[in-house]
Amino acid sequence: MFPKILLVDDESASRAALETLLRREGFEVHDASGGAAALAECVSFRPDLVLLDVLMPGMSGFEVCKRIKAAPETRLTPVVLITGLSATEDRIKGINAGADDFLSKPIDFNELLARTRSLIKLKHYTDELENAESVLFSLALSIEARDPYTRGHCDRLSEMSTSLGEKLGVPEEDVIALRRAGIVHDVGKVAVPDSILLKPGPLSPEEIEVMRKHPVVGEQICEPLKTFRLVLPIIRHHHERYDGSGYPDHLRGAEIPLTARILQLADVYDALTTDRPYRKADTSDIALGIMQEEAARGWWDRDLLEAFRTMIRDVHASNADHQSPLRTRSSPA
Question: Pick from 229, 222, 234: which is nearest to 132 by CA?
C-alpha cells in the first residue's frame, strides 16, 4: 500500500509538477485547488500527509490547517505548510494553526522528500498506537459483555470519573486518563475464569485471591502503551482503600493517586446501584449513605466522597425529567 499525500495549491502548474515527482517516488497523490476541496479530500481520501500552500484565494492555508487539526478524524494527520512568507509572525501563525512542518518556496525536492518520509513514518507509528488502544478498548468491552450485570459499566465509570475530575479541576491530561481508565480499568479480568467472575454468590478465599490479581494483570496488559502512562496507576490502584486495607499494594491515604481515588468512588457507587443475582440495586441515596458509612470506617477519602455526592445529587436535580448515565442504576465492579 502506497503512502497517501494530499497536495493543496491553487496554482495548477505547481500542483502538476509536484504530483509527477511524488508519484515517481511511489506515493499515491490526490490534489485540491482550494480549502473546501482539501477538507473534503481529507475525509474521503484519508491522506497520510497534507502538503498545503499558505496563500490561496478564499480560505487560507492557515485556516485549512486549523480545521484539519480540529476535526477528530483528521487531527493526527501531519500538515506541511508551503509558503513564500518568511516573517516570524507567519511561522508563529502556522504553529498556532497546528502545522507540523514548513517548506519555503522555491521548494527543494530533496528536502521535501526527506520531511515527507519522516512525517509519514511518524504518522504510521501514531496509527499503530491508536490501533493498539482500540484493541484494548474492544477487549475491555468484551470482558464487560461476559457478565450481563455489567452492561454499560465501563461507559458509566468513564463518564462519572471524568465529570468528577473536571469538577475538581484536575489537569486535562488526568481527565483524559480517567476517561480511558473508565473503559479499561478491569481489563485484567481477562485472566479470571468465568466460574469465578460469574459466580452468583460469595467467593471463597482462594477465588478472592484470583480476583484480586486483576489490577496487576490489567496494568501489565496496558503497560506497553506509552500513551497510557497516566492510566496505569488508576488501573493498579482503583481497589486500594484509604486505611490501607485494599489491594494490591495496601496503599494508605494520599499514597493512593487522586485519579485512582476518583475512579474507585465511581466504581463503588456503580456496584451498589445495580441489580445483582443475589441482591437488588440500592437507590442512589442509600448507596451514598453506605459509602459514607464506609468512609467513616476509613475506606474512602471523605472530602472526595463529599464532592462525589454533591456531583451525583446535582446531576439528579438537573436531570429530574430525563434519563442520564450518571443517574441510572449501574453495574457491579
Answer: 222
Considering the four listed CATH numbers 3.40.50.300, 3.30.365.10, 3.90.190.20, 3.40.50.2300, the one that applies to the domain covering 4-127 is: 3.40.50.2300
Distance in angstroms (rounded) separating the CA atoms of residues 284 and 172: 28
Helices (H), the chain: 12-24, 35-45, 61-70, 88-97, 109-145, 153-168, 172-184, 194-197, 205-211, 214-222, 232-237, 258-272, 284-296, 302-318
Query: Widest CA span of the chain, in angstroms?
Result: 76
- Residue 96, judged by CB atoms within 10 A of its CB (0-12, 13-18, 19+), counts as exposed
Whole-angstrom distance, CA of residue 175 vs CA of residue 198: 31
CB 214 within 8 A of CB 273: no
C-alpha cell at 140: 475491555
Q: How confident is the model at residue 90 (pLDDT cuts 50, 70, 90)?
A: confident
Give the fold, CATH level 3, of 146-318: Hypothetical protein af1432 (1.10.3210)
The strand pair at 49-53 and 4-8 is best described as parallel
How much of the chain, in percent, has pLDDT values that exceed 70?
A: 91
Alpha carbon distance 267, 330 (integer Å): 9
Tens digit of pLDDT for each residue in 234-276?
999 999 999 999 999 999 999 999 999 999 999 999 999 987 7
Cα–Cα distance between 320 and 218 in angstroms, integer?
37
Task: With cut-offs at 50, 70 and 90, classify the pLDDT of residue 173.
Answer: very high
Identify the residue with better confidence: 152 or 297: 297
pTM of the model: 0.62
Instruction: Report the chain's terminal Cα–Cα distance, integer Å.
Output: 43
